[in-house]
Structure formats: C-alpha cells, structure tokens
Design goal:
Length: 272
C-alpha cells in the first residue's frame, strides 16, 4: 500500500485577510502534527509537492469568464460587480494572491488524482483541499475553485465508478450538483441539516439524483446536536450497503473537521 502526503511550505507565503477564519497554515500544521507523532516516518509513505494548476485545466468545470475574474481578483482589489459571482463577500473575500492560493490548493488535489490514475499511490491526502461549495461560475462558503469536481472528472478517465463521500458539517452542494445526473459518480454526504446550517437550500434526503443519476445521490442530513454515536450508527447503516452495491474503483473523501464539538462553524457535537 503506497500512501502520499501532499505538502509544500508555499501555502505559508500567502497572507490571508486579518480575522478571516480560513487558515493558510492548515497543511503546515497537519504536517507538523503528523511528523511529531511519527505518522509519516514509514517506507510506504511519500511526500509530494503540488504545483499551481494551469488555467486551462480549471475549464474542465469552471467557466472561462469566472476564471478570468478570479485571475483579476488575484491583485486584491475588489469590484462591486464581482459580488454576483460570490467574490468579495465576508466568506469569499478578494485579497492579494487569492487565485494563486486556490490554484496551488487545487494542484494538490489534482496531483493526488494523477498519482492514483498512474497507480503510483493507493491513498493520497491533501490537507488544503475539499472546496465543495465552489460552483462553476461562483465562489461560495470559503470555496473558490472546486478541486473535488475537477479531481473526480480526472479520475473518471481511469475509473468507471467514483464514490464521493463527504463528512464535512456542511452539505457538499456543488459536488452533488456537478454529478446529479451521473450514474458514474455516487455522492454521499453526511452533514448538519440545511434547516439550521449553510448552504440551507440543499442536502435534504429527497434529493436523490435525476435521469441516469437517479439513486446515485444520497444525503444524510443530521439534526443540530448530533454526536458520535448517532453519526456512527447512520454511517454504518448507509455506507456499507452502498459501497457494496456501487462497487467503486476509487473513493474521494472530503473530511472537513467542522463537525467537531469545539468547532463553532456547525452545531454538530462530534469528538475525536
Ligand atoms: Zn464545512
């Protein structure tokens, strides 16, 4: 079993706005913690450094117009008309280097997809990934470029079926949307119910896919206050039969940690 940890110190070069809850240190902090615990010190684990994704590769999901605006936003000077693309909000501010930061993050996830496709790795982890709220022509909920949709699209070149599983506290709305009519990608999201948490309008159990994709979209909305026992019960009830029935060639997981009780971004009560 070959495992890869995506790592670069270059994320530290980006100065995100003061008071912005998203931390550019997440890859560094995860790497340092794993190193201290000797988790990376094994012959089957390799470190790979990501490169920024070239513009043209982003068009596999995003519109050229949106990417053009995002490139312009890289200068850090917001424009009022960008608000309709979700750029310049408190969750998706315009700051110097915003495009470069997210291109590098996306580069990590796509490097992972390439390593899996080329059979150079069995498991890949990118701590600065999982931007599941980015739409094809808009930014939303801290997400500007949907690295997940891009990675799944790339994995479909080598695999017939991809299972996407999302245990972030928020519904993986734009990944669901991108593959809603596909029977090649099953999307499974466990999250706090949209009755109490962003993105509010999606992630309900009645959303099950359409056309060929009917039945390939599964949502498990959980009420505020849900803890470990209820989540683990739901996970085992739903996940095991689905993975056996769907038989995916590869699994893509978004492991947002905001469902932890100490995280103020949701009302879920998970522990480590
Ligand atoms: Zn989240």
């Amino acid at each position: 079993m070959k495992s890869v940890f995506i790592y670069t110190r270059k994320f530290l070069n980006f100065g995100l706005p003061r008071g912005y809850p998203w931390s550019a240190r997440r890859t560094e902090a995860t790497y340092q913690l794993c190193s201290r615990l000797n988790l990376l010190d094994h012959p089957w684990i390799s470190i790979y450094e990501p490169k920024p994704t070239p513009d043209r590769q982003l068009y596999a999901f995003h519109t050229k117009e949106y990417i053009r605006l995002l490139k312009e936003a890289n200068q850090g000077i917001p424009k009022q008309e960008w608000m309709q693309y979700g750029l310049g909000t408190s969750e998706c501010p315009v700051y110097k280097g915003v495009y470069d930061y997210h291109r590098l993050a996306t580069g990590g996830t796509l490097l992972g997809a390439d390593l899996i496709n080329d059979e150079k790795a069995d498991i890949v982890f990118n701590a600065t990934g999982g931007f599941h709220h980015a739409g094809k022509d808009f930014a939303s909920g801290f997400c500007y470029i949907n690295d997940i949709v891009l990675a799944i699209t790339r994995l479909l070149k080598s695999y017939d079926r991809v299972l996407y599983i999302d245990i972030d506290a928020h519904h993986g709305d734009q990944v669901q949307e991108a593959f809603y009519d596909s029977d090649k990608v099953m999307t499974l999201s466990f999250h706090e119910s949209g009755k109490t948490l962003f993105p509010f309008k999606t992630g309900f159990e009645k959303e099950m896919g359409k056309g060929k994709g009917k039945g390939y979209c599964i949502n498990v909305p959980m009420p505020a206050g849900t803890g470990d026992d209820q989540f683990l019960w739901a996970f085992q009830e739903v996940f095991q039969p689905l993975i056996e029935a769907f038989d995916p060639g590869v699994v893509v997981a978004v492991l947002g940690a905001d469902a932890l009780a100490t995280d103020t971004f949701s009302n879920l009560r998970f522990t480590n």
